[in-house]
Structure formats: C-alpha cells, structure tokens
# Entry
Amino acid sequence: MKTLGLRSQHLKHDGEPTEFAEALLAYFRYRAQVLNDTVQHQLMNKAAAEAMYEKLLARQKYKHIAPMNKQKGEKKKVAYLTAMVNMLIEANSGGIDFDHDPRQLTTITQDGVPLRTLARRVDGAFPSSVNPIAVWEIKEYYHTTTFGSRVADGVYETLLDGMELEEMRLETGVSVDHVLIVDAHYTWWDCGRSYLCRMIDMLHMGYVAEILFGKEIEERLPAMVQDWAQKERERRA
# Structure
C-alpha cells in the first residue's frame, strides 16, 4: 500500500493486522490452496482432452455433431471441451433438448413481456436462449501457444455476463444459473494463472454459480444437468 501511495490503516493497527487484513490473508491462502491442490490437477492438455472425448463418444450415440474449433490447418480439430459438455448434457437431460449453439442473445421474459436481454451470446443454454434455467460459457485453448489479449478478454466477458445476471436477479427476482467451463493446462496454469485467481474471485463475488475445470466436467456436470432438467419439468407442469 505504501508503494502505491495508499493508506494502510485499514490493514494494520498498533502494529497488528486488522480483522479486515486477517480476512484478506485467509482468502488469499484459501485461493492459493484451491488452485495449487485442486484446479491445476483438473486441467487437461490436448492429448488428455482427446482421450476423454473418445471415451465419452464410445458410451452412446449422440444427436449433436461434435463442433470444430476455429483454427486452421493442423490445429483444426474437434472442440473437445465443447463437444464433451454437449455430450454430458445430452446424456443427463432426460430427453429435454437444449441450445448447444445459441445464435441469439439470451432473453428473459415475464408474463409475456421482455424483461432483460444480455449483451453477449453465451455458448449454451438450457433448455433454450429464451428464459433459460442455466447458461454456460466455455473457454478451451488446447492449441494456443501464447497467452494473448483475446484469452484474457474471455474472463472479463464472463464477468460482464455475471454482472448483468446479478442485476436482473436483484431487480426482478429472476435467477439464471451462470456456469463457466474452462480447460487447457498450458494456457491457464502456465501462462494465465493470475486469471485463474480472477475466476475464483468471480465465483465468490457471485458472478458465476459454478466453475468447472477440465476433467471435472465428467464428475460434476451430470448432477447439475439432472437438477436443471428437474426444474424444467416442474416449470412445464
């Protein structure tokens, strides 16, 4: 704080850390432990993601065709994380279809009147982009060799969506689950670890309901989807 020319009385009083400083230090320790002990081990590289994709592909037949990434030449491959998310949702949705590739902005209506429209398109919505129970964003960068501004921007796009959804919840009482799903060990752990810190911060600020890292999708996503499906059946009833 002194280096930045800022006051430090809120952190130290009579030579001792304040209650606020202790809370900060506890959070920083917690965040470091989560990232070092859990998150880094969930993140996959390209080979691990491909192997997991092939394993899920062999389990059953799927309606949705696996999407391709946006790269060219030798790097043009199946978008493994997106494909696996679609497969796991389809397998656990109880036959309820979902929007795996929204081509429109997410819109919420109430009593037949438009209530909110988000500023950005998300990567998926359950069951649809209109009045979804849940929306998700996917950040996979298996073939990226540098950490550029476009990768960093992805984190702040999620923050924007989270702030819009929070504002809607506080103002109207309508809640939509907002899920962030990320992968690529080199991109996030080796190059962009500070952005993993921002993700944990967003989670605790309430801007995302849950963050799934890499292979965690196989264990956690089915239960989440089953909960979404139950809510949708109740809503239809």
Notes: The chain has two domains: 11-42, 44-236. The helical segments are 19-42, 46-57, 80-92, 149-172, 185-191, 193-205, 216-236.
